[in-house]
Fold:
Amino acid sequence: MIEVNNESGEAVDEGRLQSLAIFALDLLRIHPQAELSILLVDEAAMSAYHEEYLGEPGPTDVLSFPMDELRTPREGEDPPLGLLGDIVLCPKVTAAQAAENGRTPDQEADYLLIHGLLHLLGHDHAEPVEKKAMFDLNDQIIAAWDSQRSRR
Structure:
């Protein structure tokens, strides 16, 4: 189950985010009944979360809060079921940085949603090898999503 709550005060295509999350979880072979919460917040709320949980001032684009530490199953393993956790996005920050990354605000939100989801599944980018693997997987999921949407 994927729940999207928009507390940001911004117009956001919540259905798109939910559809992308479903698509990515299916692609990653996570059980379709695994639970995920996507929260959209304003800059003040994101600043508070950023400072409280990471000790850094100001708003950021995305934060992830894993719950059951689910992982993508290996070949032959059953899809994991449980609580993935929460992804917090700040649409204002996302929209402001989209052009810097050569994306539209919707594309930036898509990218960051997948980024947050990968963090929930244990991916990280602290080390160069981890960063490459995580960002490559992020790009692959977005490319598959874009390809699937263009066929419609």
About this structure: The helical segments are 14-27, 43-54, 91-98, 105-120, 128-150. Residues 2-150 form a domain with the Collagenase (Catalytic Domain) fold (CATH 3.40.390.30).
